[in-house]
């Protein structure tokens, strides 16, 4: 029986047990030779290709594998190596120096070197980070003599697998780059973008050479990723796509078919452009944007491949195979089965490897999930069933799978684990006044200052204090059962007390307990909320070899018991100074988890908000009068298209307000954000109406402050006085100067002094010295004002 082709856009490279991480880190530590590393990586690639083949995948990607990052690989492939790495001979040493910097002995001369890494940025709206290529106005590109992707293609072929090479397209490659020498960091403006695209004529001949090599090595379909087709266009962008693909078409080997691949956003607005490009297929993300199928069907030429990205590469839920099948069949009815592919929506890089390793996961919930390996099976079923017009004529086995899938979804929909009527009723009763402080800032702030006896230029920290080796070891021992709960608790209390005493001694005004009991700012709360579940092995790549294990929100969220009150009360009992309660906000909890796909994100955010509101109320009842609700992720939740920003900011800020507005006038709400670059969302930050916002700012010069000025931000704020990302101790002089600069933009009555982020990654000695200098700065300015 005919089947459709199934296609994988990319596969998680780190391996079922994070083998690649171990290999690479072993190599960095000098425990593995380069040969071991290369050999191990090859074996892992082979394993992943074979796994995909065994699961019935037709279009298996090569070129999705990387020792650090695939964007870095592309820069390396075309020899776009910034000058500062050029003394290091080409090879792994140079490659890793670009990805993570090199400090120590030069690999050939043995001299001391210290080159920083290239910049890292979030990959669109995922939590994966890529290395930002650097290009200069006189940039040249030269295809590597021995392109890794060609070698990988041959490796796959030796295993009998005709794989599909995956390339980052030339336009998206340049748009991901930053122009250096022309004010690099500000590369986001469209004029810069235009400049980068002017490098296309130099880059394209190298792509042509590469395509020729791929054809020679036996490739047929080539996946060419142009995710920027889904983003906002600016002047010159459409022209760049035309230039690029017209150029590639001229000498394209007859055996090759280019499949233009988009993901993370809709492309319906540029289908007119796309359909005129001389390519052979289009992949669209129908999970993110199911509605674009209609426009795509109308636009995509009949002789192209239309690749339907229907299996979610970014989340962990089982697909609704029966509903998806309806969509696939409609497409097949219109276009026929030969040129219709079923595919993952984007790379499976953003999914954990396999459910097979989740022995302790609740079986009811486990039945609702599909990780990367299970998603291969889903694709296969769609490929088989999608080709026939109805299910009745299918193989009994396929029918059984579809039926089981239907039952699993029905069970999930009606499970009492998912639906909690109490939570839903509560949410339905939320009124606008629950999202509003009773009194305007100008009236409540003086009350707060009086109640807490706050001086001018009050000093505080962002929450965490050093998570030393001892702290991490104690936690590990406790988790393993080598330390009793009582002993662990005693240990944490001693750490907390030490931290409080030190803050008193330093003379800080608003103290924190130090967060020693927390592993991570979302996991800690997730473990205490209902509706969350944790995996044993659900690792996904974050950057380089680093992986994260996001918790899963599967059901209506609520807070059965207070989460932080005991720690805050204990810390408060040690000191007469104000103790700041410390919570993670609803949007950050949402952003850093795998979230439900059966309700709008905004609903989940509001449920989280109610849970945090309960905690805020309990802290207040217990006498805690300063409460910080961290929202470092609010900016990164911004949609990729500008036109979608307002909707998001509306509900995201609403969720924050719901979590924070129940308190009395004298209770002071703080929030903290990490990204300095939020000029563009300032009105939303104002609407959050936190009494005090502390922000990472020390690396952003005065850009942020100008925004404060421009928007007339009128609540109190603490733009970080120094950068905690380095062990350097800032001098009093430096902090004085910084504060003086802040005072040009902000009224002195509303400024707080604090570091720019939590101190968990720092050591005690530098923390102590830095904070002593910070309080010295406060003392100096109190004298002056
Ligand atoms: N309160 C948290 C801490 O200090 C905030 C962390 C963050 O900004 N990401 O660690
Ligand atoms: Zn921060």
UniProtKB/TrEMBL annotation:
One annotated GO molecular function: 5-methyltetrahydropteroyltriglutamate-homocysteine S-methyltransferase activity
Q: Which InterPro entries has this protein been placed in?
A: Cbl-indep_Met_Synth_N (IPR013215), Cobalamin-indep_Met_synthase (IPR006276), Met_Synth_C/arc (IPR002629), UROD/MetE-like_sf (IPR038071)
Q: Does the keyword Zinc apply?
A: yes
- For the ligand (Zn(2+)), the binding residues are 672, 674, 696, 757
Matching SUPFAM superfamilies, A to Z? UROD/MetE-like (SSF51726)
Presence of the UniProt keyword Cell inner membrane in the record: no
Look up the record and give one Gene Ontology term from the biological process aspect: methylation
According to the entry, every stretch annotated as the Cobalamin-independent methionine synthase MetE C-terminal/archaeal domain falls at 457-779
Q: Where is the active site?
A: 725
Enzyme Commission number(s) from the entry = 2.1.1.14
* UniProt similarity note: Belongs to the vitamin-B12 independent methionine synthase family.
Q: What is the purpose of this protein?
A: Catalyzes the transfer of a methyl group from 5-methyltetrahydrofolate to homocysteine resulting in methionine formation.
Q: Which NCBIfam families match?
A: met_syn_B12ind, PRK05222.1
Full protein name: 5-methyltetrahydropteroyltriglutamate--homocysteine S-methyltransferase
Q: Which organism is it from?
A: Tieghemiomyces parasiticus
């Amino acid at each position: 029986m005919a089947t459709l082709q199934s296609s994988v856009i990319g596969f998680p490279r780190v391996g079922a047990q994070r083998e690649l991480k171990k290999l690479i880190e072993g190599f960095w530590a000098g425990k593995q030779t380069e040969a071991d590393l290369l050999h191990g990586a090859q074996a892992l690639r082979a394993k992943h290709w074979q796994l995909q083949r065994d699961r019935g995948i037709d279009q298996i990607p090569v070129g999705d594998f990387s020792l650090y990052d695939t964007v870095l690989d592309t820069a390396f492939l075309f020899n776009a190596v910034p000058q500062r790495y050029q003394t290091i001979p080409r090879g792994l040493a140079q490659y890793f120096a670009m990805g993570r910097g090199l400090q120590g002995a030069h690999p050939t001369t043995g001299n001391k070197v210290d080159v920083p890494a290239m910049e890292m940025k979030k990959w669109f709206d995922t939590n994966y980070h890529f290395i930002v290529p650097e290009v200069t106005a006189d940039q040249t590109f030269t295809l590597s003599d021995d392109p890794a992707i060609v070698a990988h293609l041959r490796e796959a072929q030796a295993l009998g697998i005709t794989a599909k090479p995956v390339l980052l397209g030339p336009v998206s490659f340049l748009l991901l780059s930053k122009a250096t020498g022309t004010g690099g960091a500000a590369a986001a403006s469209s004029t810069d973008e235009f400049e980068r695209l002017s490098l296309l004529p130099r880059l394209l001949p190298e792509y042509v050479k590469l395509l020729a090599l791929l054809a020679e090595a036996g490739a047929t379909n080539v996946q060419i990723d142009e995710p920027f087709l889904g983003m906002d266009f600016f002047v010159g962008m459409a022209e760049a796509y035309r230039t690029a693909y017209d150029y590639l078409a001229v000498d394209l080997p007859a055996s090759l078919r280019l499949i233009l691949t988009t993901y993370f956003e809709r492309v319906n607005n540029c289908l007119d452009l796309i359909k005129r490009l001389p390519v052979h297929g289009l992949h669209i993300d129908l999970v993110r944007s199911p509605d674009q199928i209609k426009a795509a069907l109308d636009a995509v030429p009949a002789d192209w491949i239309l690749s339907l990205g229907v299996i979610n590469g970014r989340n962990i839920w089982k697909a609704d195979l029966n509903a998806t099948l309806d969509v696939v069949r409609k497409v097949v009815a219109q276009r026929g089965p030969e040129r219709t592919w079923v595919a993952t929506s984007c790379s499976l890089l953003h999914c954990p490897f396999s459910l097979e390793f989740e022995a302790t996961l609740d079986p009811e919930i486990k039945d609702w999930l599909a990780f990367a390996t299970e998603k291969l099976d889903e694709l296969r079923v769609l490929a088989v069933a999608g080709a026939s017009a109805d299910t009745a004529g299918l193989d009994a086995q396929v029918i059984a799978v579809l039926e089981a899938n239907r039952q699993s979804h029905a069970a999930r929909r009606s499970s009492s684990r998912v639906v909690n009527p109490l939570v839903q009723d509560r949410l339905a009763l939320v009124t606008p006044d629950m999202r509003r402080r009773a009194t305007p800032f100008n009236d409540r702030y003086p009350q707060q200052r009086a109640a807490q006896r706050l001086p001018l230029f009050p000093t505080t920290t962002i929450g965490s204090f050093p998570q030393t080796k001892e702290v991490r070891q104690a936690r590990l021992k406790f988790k393993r059962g080598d330390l009793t709960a009582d002993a662990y608790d005693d240990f944490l209390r001693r750490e907390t007390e030490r931290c409080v005493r030190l803050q008193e001694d330093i003379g800080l005004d608003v103290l924190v307990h130090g967060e020693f009991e927390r592993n991570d700012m979302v996991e800690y709360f997730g473990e205490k909320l209902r509706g969350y579940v944790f995996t044993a092995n659900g690792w996904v790549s974050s950057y380089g070899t680093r992986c994260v294990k996001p918790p899963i929100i599967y059901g209506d969220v609520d807070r059965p018991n207070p989460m932080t009150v005991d720690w805050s009360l204990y810390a408060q009992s040690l000191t007469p100074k104000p103790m700041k309660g410390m919570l993670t906000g609803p949007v950050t909890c949402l952003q850093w988890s795998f979230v439900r796909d059966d309700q709008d994100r905004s609903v989940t955010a509001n449920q989280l908000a109610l849970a945090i509101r309960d905690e805020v109320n309990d802290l207040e009842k217990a006498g805690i009068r300063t409460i910080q609700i961290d929202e470092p992720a609010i900016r990164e939740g911004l949609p990729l298209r500008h036109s979608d920003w307002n909707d998001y900011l509306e509900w995201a800020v609403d969720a924050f307000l719901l979590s924070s507005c129940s308190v009395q006038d004298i209770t002071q709400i703080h929030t903290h954000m990490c990204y300095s670059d939020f000029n563009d969302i300032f009105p939303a930050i104002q609407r959050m109406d936190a009494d005090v916002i502390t922000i990472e700012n020390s690396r952003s010069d005065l850009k942020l402050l100008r925004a404060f000025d421009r928007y007339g931000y009128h609540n109190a704020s603490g733009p970080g006085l120094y950068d905690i990302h380095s062990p350097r101790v800032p001098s009093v002089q430096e902090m004085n100067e910084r504060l003086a600069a802040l005072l040009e933009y902000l009224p002195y009555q509303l400024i707080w002094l604090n570091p720019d982020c939590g101190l968990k990654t720092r050591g005690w000695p530098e923390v102590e010295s830095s904070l002593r200098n910070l309080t010295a700065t406060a003392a100096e300015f109190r004298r002056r004002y």
